[in-house]
Write a structure and sequence with these properties.
Blueprint (H helix, E strand, L loop, with lengths): L2 H13 L7 H14 L23 H11 L7 H10 L9 H10 L7 H4 L1 H10 L20 H14 L1 H11 L5 H10 L9 H7 L5 H12 L5 H11 L2 E4 L2 E4 L7 H5 L12 H12 L7 H5 L7 H15 L2 H10 L3 H4 L4 H14 L4 H8 L7 H15 L7 H10 L5 H7 L3 H20 L2
Helix pairs in contact: 1-2, 8-9, 8-10, 10-12, 11-12, 15-17, 17-18, 20-22, 23-25, 24-25
Length: 445
């Protein structure tokens, strides 16, 4: 550590015992911020004192473990530690703030809980260093009227969970005054508790000037089979797809007109996909999944556009959160997005079956990466068994699987892992599970 870093740490430790930061804290924080931001900070003489804290800090042992994580020990667990700490309603001690805020500057994935965990002094520090100013956009618990964009989205989410209709009416009342970026984020909040009562508002949002708003609205309307958008898409599919006997005849669109664009069809395809194939996939994926049994349909012949139609069914299952279609399409294309359409227990059952019947490769890793934590005993034992098996033939290939197992298996199962096999990779999993179990225990104190 440099002399100034030591000074900052000493001063910030002191803020946990003082009602507000004194001159030492201010000077140290500004100097650290100046050095880390290339000198683009306020002058020390113009800095207001750091405010007092309203929340209690996590305990000493929990804070020490966070320091170890930030120092590189199992650093992939940092998001889990932050989420667990935020759930306790407490904050991090002030002395870890510079390092934590610097980490958040580089890693956006950990920012979601920092607005609360950093406390008043974290926001004060963020005001001194432009590189940490992202924190000022994260939720802090403020209300709809007083908060920033993230606070208002969090408030709308909480209201939506409690009273979907009231949340939508609140959003409608301020819609015209919201920024385009905020409108796109607010529309996504309506996914929770979505119903046909939201349809008129979302249909209107299809005319928004911002493409992200139109796309978000179209995605939600796709989940409502009775919506006008879904019915328009169904009409387009009926004009292009015919089912006769065991054959599905398909004719892809020749053009993408303005009405299709309004309904969320994007005219320009990604590289490697033809225009007609791209338009076909989009209209099929946004049409209601009322074709019949997916298992029966998957057995039919599709002479033309077979891969495109089936890829569209995968996308439709994901967009529409349809469990029956997700199960069927996972058998055709086992991707993590399909598992997210299923309850956690069923996710784990499907994933365990996949692990038992599939070799260790990048696809298996991606599937497991999409399964909700914490993995229970069925999936845990399937993965441990795979580790033992691969360890006898390809031990050099186990690195990512061992990490995933240690990070996602329920930490309460550390004894199961310890007793499962003496093989070194399994014992690494067990050690990481025990590390996480201790982590949760410390945060509960």
């Amino acid at each position: 550590m440099t002399g100034w870093d030591e000074l900052a740490s000493t001063a910030l430790v002191g803020t946990d015992r003082r009602p507000y930061g004194g001159d030492l804290l201010e000077a140290a924080a500004v100097e650290v911020a100046r050095r880390r931001a290339g000198g683009r900070v306020n002058e020390p003489g113009g800095v207001e004192p750091a405010p007092g804290e309203e929340r209690e800090a996590v305990g000493r042992r929990a804070a020490e473990r966070l320091g170890r994580l930030l120092g590189g020990e199992h650093e992939r667990l940092i998001p889990e530690w932050l989420a667990a700490a935020a759930a306790t309603g407490r904050r991090v001690p002030a002395y870890v703030l510079p390092e934590l805020l610097e980490r958040g500057r580089r890693d956006r994935s950990i920012r979601v809980h920092l607005g609360v965990l950093a406390g008043q002094r974290g926001r004060w520090l963020a005001g001194q260093n432009p590189a940490w100013a992202y924190l000022l956009e994260e939720p802090t618990g403020e209300t709809w009227e007083l908060g920033g964009a993230a606070d208002r989205r969090a408030h709308l989410s909480a209201l939506r969970a409690a009273d979907p209709g009231q949340a939508r009416r609140l959003l409608e009342s301020t819609w015209e005054r919201e920024t385009p970026d905020d409108r796109a984020g607010f529309v996504e909040v309506l996914a929770d508790g979505l119903s046909m009562a939201d349809e008129p508002f979302l249909e209107q949002a299809l005319d928004d000037r911002r493409r992200e708003v139109r796309q978000a609205a179209a995605n939600l309307l796709t989940r409502l089979p009775g919506s006008r958008l879904s019915q328009r898409m169904a009409g387009r599919v009926r004009a292009r797809v015919t089912i006769s006997g065991d054959t599905i005849t398909v004719e892809a669109p020749e053009a993408c007109d303005r009405d299709m664009e309004r309904d969320g069809v994007r005219p320009k395809p990604p590289r490697g996909i033809g225009e007609r194939a791209w338009w076909l996939q989009q209209i099929v994926s946004r049409a209601p999944l009322l074709w019949g049994s997916p298992n029966v349909l998957l057995g039919m012949k599709i002479p033309d556009w077979d891969a495109e139609v089936k890829a569209a069914w995968v996308r439709a299952a994901v967009l529409q959160r349809d469990p029956e279609w997700a199960r069927a399409m996972f058998g055709w294309d086992p991707i993590a997005d399909l598992l997210e359409c299923l309850p956690p227990e069923e996710q784990q059952e499907l994933a365990a079956r996949f692990v038992r019947g599939h070799d260790l490769d990048s696809q298996l890793i991606m599937v497991l990466g999409g399964v909700s934590s914490h993995w229970r005993e069925g999936l845990a034992t399937a993965v441990l068994s795979k580790i033992v098996k691969v360890n006898t033939t390809q031990p050099w290939n186990l690195g990512e699987l061992v990490k995933l197992a240690g990070e996602h298996i329920d930490p309460a199962l550390f004894e199961l892992a310890e007793d499962y096999s003496p093989a070194e990779p399994v014992q690494k999993v067990a050690a990481l599970l025990r590390f996480r179990a201790d982590m949760y225990k410390e945060l509960s104190r």
